[in-house]
Amino acid sequence: MVSTSLDRKGGLGLFLLLLLFFLIFDLFTPRVIITSQHQQGHGKRALSIGEAFEGEEFTYRIGFWVFDDVAVGSISLRKDPGGDYIAVLTAQTTGIVGWLLRNRKDTYTARLRMIDGGRRFVTRIFEKSVDIGGRVRRGITILDYERGMLTWRSWGGGKEPKAGEDRIPPGVFYDGPLTAFYNFRYGVYGPVEEGRRYTIKTFPKKGVSDIYVRIATKEEMKRRLTGGRTPGDFLADVKIDRELFGSQSGEIEIIFTKDMVPVEAVAKDIIFFGDVRGVLVGEKPFQKGFSPRIPLQKD
């Protein structure tokens, strides 16, 4: 069983988990080949998933109740000299709320490897840390697909150390939130369609844990996005383990533009906080100057 005991119901952990699942479903694009603008000869070279997103960075503002700016989060991807890709997600409280929550900072880091000829990421190592006023709780999950084993441990932060392991069934990939973020955008999980449902296997907890997603119809979206909500072109309903971020329902709403950029998310019924919001405030393009939306060729 994978430990999720990094202070689940404390302060920024809620906001970070909102951001994590906000970013997982960033682009429900059709399966595409992203082509290089710097081509050799007359042919087009399909970019790998790593080449497509290396150097990208998104920044989000997070809030709850009447407070719109209680934390800031960012996600980025870089290539490691050894050939792996490193995805980093951070979130930190700000202002008076940050002081009340003891300047909490959460950091999630995933070491990713490309497979299937560069058409998919798999997680090799997933690390997380929660720093609350200098007291740090750490955790690490290692996935060894050759041995078919997942091992994890957590320690620090004034709590007991914990450890465990799980078998990885043959042919199954456990995609953590950062891995799923890039795989979805590259088209690994299939196209977006109104009313379509998705089931994604993530790190197991008491067996296999799944994330469930449904794309709302245009009629539903028009009815639900009222009262000053951020305008958008698509609405996704996400259902996850309620205990993961201290929610009574485990439900998240995500709003996308027509280019499938997530502009707002709301995590519902967070214990002690109510609905927690995340809003996109900054986007850094890929360092190579490529966009996952321009140019595209269908597979």
What does it look like?
This protein has 299 residues and is mostly beta strands. The protein has one domain (12-37, 44-293). Helices cover 14% and strands 43% of the residues. The protein has helices at residues 12-24, 49-53, 95-100, 177-186, 218-224, and strands at residues 32-34, 57-64, 67-79, 85-93, 105-115, 120-132, 135-144, 149-156, 162-167, 197-202, 209-215, 234-239, 251-256, 262-270, 274-284, 296-298. A 14-stranded antiparallel beta sheet has the order 9-8-7-6-5-4-3-2-15-14-13-12-11-10. A two-stranded antiparallel ribbon has the order 1-16. The protein starts with 11 loop residues before the first helix and ends with a strand. The model is unreliable at 1-43 and 286-299 (pLDDT under 50).
Main traits of this protein?
299 residues; disordered C terminus; single chain; disordered N terminus; two-stranded antiparallel sheet; mainly beta
